[in-house]
Amino acid sequence: MTTPSTTTDYDVLVVGFGPTGAVATGLLGHLGHRTLVVDRLTDVYDKPRAIALDHEIFRHFDNMGLADAIAPHVEPFTASEHFGVDGQLIRRVHMIAKPYPLGYTPSMVFSQPPVEAELRRHATSFACVQAELGAELVDLLQRPDRVEAKLKDAGGQLRTVTARYVLGCDGASSTVRQIAGIALEDLIFDEPWLVVDVRVDEAALAKLPRNSAQFCSPARPVSFLIGPKNHRRWEIMLLPGEDPRQMERPENVWSLLSPWLTPEDGELWRAASYRFHALVAADWRNGRVVIAGDAAHQQPPFIGQGMCQGLRDATNLVWKLDSVLKGISPDALLDSYTAERKQHVIELTGKIKTIGQSICERDPAAARRRDTQILLEGGGKPLEITRQEIIPPLRTGFLMRQDGAARGSLFPQPQVLRGDKACLLDKITGSGLRIFIDGRRSDAPSLIAHCAAHPELIPTAIAPAGTDASGMLEETDGVLAGWFDRHGVAAAVVRPDHYVFGTARNAGELGSLLREVGSRLHGHLNPDLNMEKTA
After folding, report:
1. What does each C-alpha distance from 245 to 159, 192, 275 come to in angstroms?
2. Contacts for 444-449 with beta carbons within 8 Å, 24 or more apart?
3. Fewest CB atoms less than 10 Å from the CB: which of 286, 403, 414, 440?
4. Does the predicted model carry a pTM greater than 0.85?
C-alpha cells in the first residue's frame, strides 16, 4: 500500500467538539494526523448532560494520559435499585466484583463540563491539531481523493478546506449526516421525559435515597441518579397532556421533586425536557464522510450508555482510519466500522428498550404482573444483575472468521509487576495490535516463536506472580490467568480498541490466526471483511 500523493489541507476534518469529537481528535492528534476540529459553539456547554461512563471508556482515557486529570470529576456509580408498584424492591443493578476485569471501577458517574474541558485541552495539545470554535459547516463536496468542506466562521466569512476524510460528531441533528444523505432508522421508542439536575445542600442529602433508584410506578415513572459530590439527577416521565416547556418551569419542577426536596434544599442546575428516542443511522459512512456519536445513534438513557456508545465509535474508527491514512490498510477497512458499531448499538438499544419499557409501564395491572415476573426470575427475591452483563460483545466486522472463544469481547487488563511495583497492563504494552500468550504453558516459548514472522504484532507472555518464568510479565491478581482458563485458550490477538480479534488453543491455531489478521489488515483476503448484514 502507498500513501496517496494528493495534497490536502488536513488528513481529517472533525465536525463537532463534544465528547465524541474531542476523543476522536485527541486520538488522531496523538497518532500524528493533521486534524481540524470545528464547532459552532465557542465553549463547553456548562450544564450536565451525560452522567455515566464505564471501565471500557475510562481505560481509553487512561491510555490517552487523562486518567489523573479526569479522576477528580468521577465517582463510582452506586447500585440502581428498582422499586415496583407498591414500593417494594424488585431488581438491583450493580457492578461486577473485584478484581475488576479492566482494572478500573466498572461503572462510574462524572461531571460532564470539566471532563469535556479536559478532553478538549488534550486534543488541542498536539501541534498537528487545529481547533476553530464558532465555526460552522455549511456544505461538503466529495471528490475521489478528498472532501471539500465549506465553513462559515463567527463573522459570517466563508472559506473552503480540504481533508482526506470528514468525521461528523455534530449531534442528533447532524449537518454532516444530512449533507451526506444518511437516513435514520427508527428502533421504536419515543417517550417524553423531564431531566432535572440539582446541586443538593449538604444538610439535605440525608433526605435522599442512598443508592440510585428507578421508581417504576405506573402513576409516574421516575429515575433517580447519584452523581459526583452533591449532584443528583431525576429523570421524570411526562404524562399525556403535560406541556414539556411548561414542565421545565421552576415551580413545576419543584412540585415534581416535592417527595424528596424543597426549593430550600438545593440549587436547580438544569431542567430540560427530552423525547427519549431509539434511532440508528442506516449507514455510518458515505465515501469519505463518516458519522459517530449522536449523529449516528440515539438511545434511551436507562443504563447510562449514551456517551459511552459515542466514545466506542471514536475508538473503533480512529485506529482503522489511522491504518488507512498511513497506507497500511485499504479504504475498505472502514466498512467494518458500520458493521461493528451499528450491530452493537442495535443489540444494546434492544436491551435498554426492554428495561425502559418495563420501567415505563403505565397500566397498573400490567405493572403488577411485571413485578411478579421479575421477582420470579430472582427466585422469589429481588433480581440481581450487573450493568456489565448488559453490554454485548462485537459480533461481526474485523474479527477472526471462525467463531471462537472470547471473539469480539473486551480483553482484560490485569495489574502487572514493573520492578517491585504494580501497574496496569496497558502502561507496559500500549494499545496497538497485540498478541498475549498464557505464560503458564510449557509451550509458551514455541507460541512466542510463531510470532516472529509478524514483527508488527509483538507478543507478550503473562503468568501469575511467582511462576518463575523469565522474560514474562507477572500479573498480581489472577485476572488474565482466570480469563485464559475460562475460555480454554493459549493466546489472543487484541485490537487497538482492546477488543479480541480472535483466540488460539495451540501453536497451529495461533499460526493460522496470525496469518489471518495480517492478511485482513492489509486487505489481501475476502474484501467483505467478514461483514454480515446488520439491518
Report:
1. 38, 11, 12
2. 444/469, 444/472, 446/507, 447/490, 447/491, 447/507, 447/510
3. 403
4. yes
Position 318, amino acid: V
Classified as helix, coil or strand, 7 is: coil
pLDDT of residue 6: 60
Q: Angle 112-123/19-30 helices, nearest 10 degrees? A: 30
Contact 185, 281 (CB under 8 A): yes
Instruction: Evaluate whether 278 touches 200 at the Cβ level (below 8 Å).
Output: no
1 Cβ partners below 8 Å, 6+ apart? 327, 328, 329, 330, 522, 523
Domains defined for the chain, CATH in brackets: 10-76+105-184+280-357 (3.50.50.60), 415-522 (3.40.30.120)
Picking from 295, 293, 321, the residue whose alpha carbon sits closest to that of residue 309 is 293
Distance of CA 10 to the CA centre of its chain: 26
Which DSSP letter does residue 474 get? E
With b meaning 16 or more CB within 10 Å and e meaning fewer, what string describes 114-142? ebbbbbbebbbebeebbbebebbbeebee
* Amino acid identity at 130: Q
d(CA 337, CA 342): 8
The alpha helices in 303-359, defined as continuous H runs, are 306-325, 335-359
- For the chain, the farthest-separated pair of C-alpha atoms sits apart, in whole angstroms, at 72
User: If you average pLDDT over residues 418-433, what whole number do you get?
Assistant: 93
Q: How many CB atoms lie within 10 A of CB 104?
A: 22
φ, ψ of residue 388 in degrees (nearest 5): -65, -35
Buried b (16+ CB within 10 A) or exposed e, 285-317: bbebbbbbbbbbbbbbbbbbbbbbbbbbbbbbb
The CA-atom distances, in angstroms, between 201 and each of 222, 231, 254, 372 are 21, 10, 15, 38
Contacts of 320 by beta carbon, 8 Å cutoff, 6+ apart: 329, 333, 334, 336, 337, 398
HEC profile for 121-178?
HHHCCCCCEEEEECCEEEEEEEECCEEEEEEECCCCCEEEEEEEEEEECCCCCCHHHH
Residues with Cβ within 8 Å of 73's Cβ and at least 6 positions away in sequence, in order, are 110, 111, 114, 115, 228
- Decide if 405 contacts 500 (C-beta within 8 A): no
Q: C-alpha grid cell for residue 118?
A: 479536559
The string of DSSP letters for 426-465 reads HHHH-SSSEEEEETTSTTHHHHHHHGGG-TTS-EEEEEET
Of residues 87, 113, 119, the one with CA closest to residue 20: 119
Ranked by mean pLDDT, the top range of 347-356, 390-399, 447-456, 516-525 is 390-399
Residue with cell 466484583: 97
CB atoms inside a 10 Å sphere around CB 72 = 14
504: part of which helix (H) or strand (E)?
strand 500-504
pLDDT in tens, 47-95: 999 999 999 999 999 999 999 999 999 999 999 999 999 999 999 999 8
Burial (Cβ within 10 Å: 0-12, 13-18, ≥19) of residue 211: middle
Residue listed under C-alpha cell 461493528: 340
